[in-house]
Amino acid sequence: MSNVATQVIDHFVSQVGAQAATWLQSCVHCGECAEACHFYEVTKDPRYTPAWKLEPFARAYRARKAPFAGVRRALGLAKEPDEAELNEWQELIYDSCTMCGRCTMVCPMGIDIASLVGLARKSMAANGIGPEDLFAVAEKSREVGSPLGVTPEKMEERIDWLSDEHEVDIPLNKEKAEVLLTISSIETMKYPQSIVAMAQVLNHAGIDWTFSTKGYEATNFGVLSGKADVAKVMIERIVAAAESVGAKTVIIPECGHAYGALRWTGAMMLGRPLPFEVFHITEYLAMLKRDGKLKLKPMDDAITYHDPCQISRRGGATEAAREVLDGFATGFREMSPTGNANWCCGGGGGVAAIQRATPLRLKVFEIKMKQVEDSGADIMVSACANCRQTLDGGKEHYKWDREIGSLVEIVADHLVKA
Amino acid sequence: MSFLEFTEGPLWYVALVVFSVGVAWNIIGILAMRVRGDSAVPRKSPVAGGIKAIFLHMAPHGGFFSRTAYHVIVGYLFHLGLFALLLFGSFHVAFIKEWTGLSWTPLPRWGFIIASEVAFAGLILMWIRRWTDPITRQISDRDDHIGTGLTMLAMLTGCFALGEASDGLRAVHMLSVELLMLYFPFSRLMHAFTFIFSRYFMGAAYGKRGYVP
Amino acid sequence: MSIRSFLLLLALVLGAAALPGPTLAAGEGATAGQVPGESLGNTSDADFWRAVREGQPQTISIPDREAAVLIQSEGENWRNIRNGPISTIGGWLLVGVIILVSLYFAIRGRIRITGGRSGKRIQRFTQMQRVGHWFVASMFILLGSSGLVLLYGRYGLPYLIGKDGFATLASASLQAHNLFGPLFIASIVVLFFTFVKGNWLSRDDIGWIAKLGGFFGGHASSRFYNFGEKNWFWMSMSLGLILSVSGIILDFPALLEDRYAQQLAHIGHAASALVFISVGLGHIYLGVFGVEGAVEGMTTGTVDANWAKDHHDLWYEEVMADEAAKAGGE
Q1: Is C185 in the B-facing interface, judged by CB distances under 8 Å?
Q2: Of B196, B25, B35, B181, nearest in space to A70 by CA
Q3: Would you say residue A418 lies in a domain?
Q4: What is the Cα gyration radius of chain A?
Q5: Which residues constitute the domain of residue A202?
Q6: In the 8-state DSSP scheme, what is residue C254?
Q7: End-to-end CA distance of chain B
Q8: CA-closest candidate to residue B194, choices B22, B16, B26
Q9: In a 3-state reduction of DSSP, which class is residue C62?
Q10: In the prediction, which pLDDT does C31 show?
Q11: Among A12, A15, A22, which would you mutate to test the B interface (most chain B Cβ atoms within 10 Å of its Cβ)?
């Protein structure tokens, strides 16, 4: 057996705790998880069955860590995966899993497959097995502060330009502020209007907030690629920025996994409780609306909401976006399935950054088109720039006639000017 | 020592010890592993989420029923039939009484027969699915088939012995049950115990976030 | 029956019971031309014995209706038919089919796919059909093997595994046979509804018959099912029906409380089972071994396009036309 494979397996089993062990051991190979997976749904290729994606790792667990692993090895019953097999599995661990967690809903054993894929990615990434382009993006985040090369200087430049262009006050590096806002670099580069929209809404509500060049990037490609060191650095930067401005609240922009990374795993990666509260922008908007700080003009377009998996199903903030839309977007309708059971956009979990996964990703978009068309909506908004980018890619490929937008942007567009 | 005495004596003790110690060792072995700490501020109670998951995952939720109906229905047929015949078959009740002194009202014979037929139908239908569904064909391995096969064998020999006419048939049934017990702790059949932890851990992790998937 | 003749009979039975067993066998106990007992008086013994042999029910004072018939002569007929023609002809039928299939395999070999596999898969059987088929197949194996043990086991097994061993095996077979019977009935009903479509006879079948199904060379066109498959479908359905009805009668004797119906059911059950098993062997041969690529339709649900062209060309063309129409419609 090659050395690399042994290292991957060593790394993997070292991460397996009681939770992962029960999950790896409880799978009865019923295959129902395939019914929930968008990659299986559009290809009907049984290799995309979520349980199968974990197969070499479950085998490694049985051979190395599970109770009676020694007996199995002694009897030659457990074959550990070799390097060739692990390389072959890249496609299943990276390209065809967005870690959306939909498969867990249907699993009779309640196995958290997405988290196990996350563990497998960490072990593969630690040993250099994985898509080059995704790794490159992660490394770039470590080196320059952002996956898309938004350096602190570039960030300053962008903010200056945006506030001039849109005549909006965008505070940067305020000495002290109650709220620290972060951004997703997809927004900075591709959807700058989102940044403007967030600024407009926060200003409208009279919030004391700021951006900080010490820590502004919410996107965490360390988490997506499985590079734990990068993931930690990204969290530490935000914590440092929040502490330096004395912020008690950190807002995550329209980015799904950034929310999960900071809100749910941030403290663990940091090694201590976060010194602030974390809100996704939809949660924060819902709060402002509840407090009567959002004055909105009604909007009657036929609109629907695409749930980002890491906000809704795996984030628990499913209702926030609905609370914001309720009463204000009179033409709002749900797609089916929706909310916690909604289909993934196909580009989450870093898959959007994997070039070779593009055809597969585009195929997944067929599900979304059908969902939206069946709902009769003309506009689909999301609360995740990564979803939005993936969906836009699909729209462009299929020359689709519906509009794709952002929840914050439509809120900003309908603010009642004071 | 007759074959029956052997299967109801030494072999039975061996099987019982391997089964109980094996299952306990397996569960303790898992639970002794590090439980991943999570210091995120909870939105909802993790314990409530864990308990919710245990019950929630008894049936598909979130609109998946129609897609998984076959498996859910035959799965329940098998498991309910098996529990009914295992715990309420008059021979099994008598056997349990002999060993533990505990006893309860068994099913009438016709009830036992129906339970057996339901269990057989469920098991055979699940096994057929394993062979004919492209998904399960892809993911099934030796363990899946051995586990199913041994369960089938234990049930078949039980059915053979229904006439209660021969010591030989009783002994063969004992032997096949013992084989199943010897295999159990080392196999995926352990799901009979681990499912509760698996669901709980998942429910606790996500319940904390606010939604149990 | 008068008290007198009853006492006479009683004496006869007790007397007979006192004799050594073998002398009881038919024709040995009585001397030709002589009937036991008194031949004078107002009761004719000849009439009496005729009444006994004809199985006329007489007056009795216990609730068991069956006890009113002293000797049910059909029982002997039943035993003779079961152990005679049914067992013999059925046995030869089974052996004959095995020889025929082996001969066919020796001469023709495995029927390969013309031009090899194309790699293109065509959906043939739905999941529901596959499940229904294999469920009936497993019942076929369980019931068939236990049934054969019950019918033929006595001729060889006692020598192989001893009388006790055979008694044990027969008891096991009986229990299994009774337990799985109802599951067979349920599954054959499902099988009817999942497979009936496409199994009605049609004009295309004439061509297939004329070419002897292509079994002896040449190509016989067919749609989704060929004439042979249709035959097998209807045969298994009607035999299945006979087996189900007769099986219920045998399983629940109290339903009819009629010994004659039991005997008839038994004869019908055994005869149709033997035909079912014999033809089933041919079906298994063709499905699993004889025709390359056939079994995949029933395991994975799909078949190779070239297989479809070989064996079901008219169906293949329909599928292709459908595909083309779909592609054109998009």
Answers
A1: no
A2: B25
A3: no
A4: 22
A5: 133-288
A6: G
A7: 56
A8: B26
A9: coil
A10: 54
A11: A22
